[in-house]
Design goal:
300 residues; alpha/beta; Rossmann fold; UDP-galactose 4-epimerase, domain 1; globular
Length: 300
């Protein structure tokens, strides 16, 4: 919008009411109402388009069925309609560790999605990012919400030794924007993360330090955490911890520290410095109540 580029967004009906821009703003995107599984809506959305930025995902929904339908069936439908409309290029965001042979469902599905895109016949750019954090993320914020509901301890999956490579949402958006202009990013799988690695335990300590919510961290076997997640899902409409959330913490997910600068020419922001700009002001207990009793995302 800032660059004056013509934009079009495919949004589900319930998303249309929550767009982050004002319709009276300069150069507002055109909106097509529908889902990624709706063939007619997708064809309308991609007709006349040069580049698709594919960001639809079900990774935080907590259901394998939704993950398979959105990531696999939805991507196949998008590619079919894009080829029919003679779209030039597809840009999408994947995960560090994505592989069709992975033992973890989330990364296996993401790996299968990447294979579908690479075999599509379209020019593509696949950006594998570290875990993305920001003011409305469903990972760092969920940790803070869990801490706010228990003033004594926090259950940590595993021993906390897993290495994570977080990247701030604005830096990921900037990378996507720059990829549209760089021919060197076409037909490539690019792995990026923030300027530092952190372990699961260090991440928890940082969140507690920034929010002022000191808690006793108790290491818990991942299989018990998965069981507790299923129990929690039966009690509340939504769970703070989903199976896909635990997949991210199952093994190390990192890439080279200088990749973001090498590929896109800028230095991403540091983890703790960025959290300090918004987390201390957030009321996580009230946010946790709204989250736990809010309906799940609608089925596609």
């Amino acid at each position: 919008m800032e660059q004056g580029l013509p934009l079009r967004c495919l949004l589900a009906p319930h998303q249309v009411r929550n767009v982050p821009w004002d319709s009276e703003m300069e150069n507002p995107p055109e909106i097509v109402v529908g889902t990624i599984l709706d063939q007619q809506a997708v064809f309308r959305a991609v007709t006349g388009v040069h580049t698709i930025i594919h960001l639809e995902s079900a990774m935080w929904w907590g259901r394998q069925r939704d993950l398979e339908r959105v990531e696999i069936a939805g991507t196949r439908n998008l590619i079919t309609q894009a080829r029919a409309a003679r779209v030039g290029r597809l840009v999408t965001v994947s995960h560090l560790g994505a592989a069709s042979s992975s033992a973890y469902l989330l990364h296996r599905i993401k790996g299968q999605q990447e294979e579908i895109i690479r075999a599509s016949g379209l020019a593509y750019t696949i950006i594998r990012s570290g875990i993305v954090f920001g003011e409305d993320d469903a990972f760092i914020n969920n940790m803070a919400m869990m801490m706010s509901t228990n003033p004594i301890f926090f259950l940590m999956p595993g021993m906390g030794e897993v290495s994570i490579h977080p990247i701030y949402i604005d830096d990921l958006v900037r990378a996507i924007q720059i990829s549209l202009e760089r021919i060197s990013t076409v037909d490539r799988v690019l792995e990026i993360g923030g300027p530092e690695y952190t372990t699961e335990r260090d991440m928890l300590q940082t969140i507690m330090r920034v929010t002022g919510m000191g808690r006793l961290v108790i290491a818990m076997p991942p299989y018990i955490m998965r069981f507790l997640s299923r129990v929690y899902n039966r009690i509340f409409p939504r769970s703070f911890v989903t199976p896909h959330w635990l997949d991210i913490l199952a093994t190390n997910r990192t890439t080279q520290l200088g990749n973001t600068f090498d590929y896109f020419g800028f230095q991403p922001r540091r983890f703790e410095d960025t959290l300090l700009t918004y987390m201390p002001q957030e009321r996580y207990f009230l946010r946790a109540l709204r989250f736990a009793f809010r309906r799940r995302p609608r089925r596609i």
